[in-house]
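Marked as duplicate of an earlier ticket. Keeping the data here for the record.
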Amino acid sequence: RRQVEFLVARGWSAAIEHTEPEHTGGSYWYMWKLPMFGEASVDRILEDAESCHKAHPRLHVRLVGFDKYRQTQGTAMVVFRGNPV
């Protein structure tokens, strides 16, 4: 929760992504929805991540924070680990 609060305090746009556990080292993760531009509610961001995990329980889910000024990823963290088959 504190990491998401940090992301919001920086003004970064949150995005939720997911991928198979065997592909976590790759550069491509599937986008859950469009990035949450301007979202300031930590609870909404966490709820969206949980929704992605419930829809894809076997996949890893990560939260990415995009810095709109530098146009880069400011942070990326796995928030749910997929359950093995």
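See parent ticket for discussion. The radius of gyration is 12 Å.
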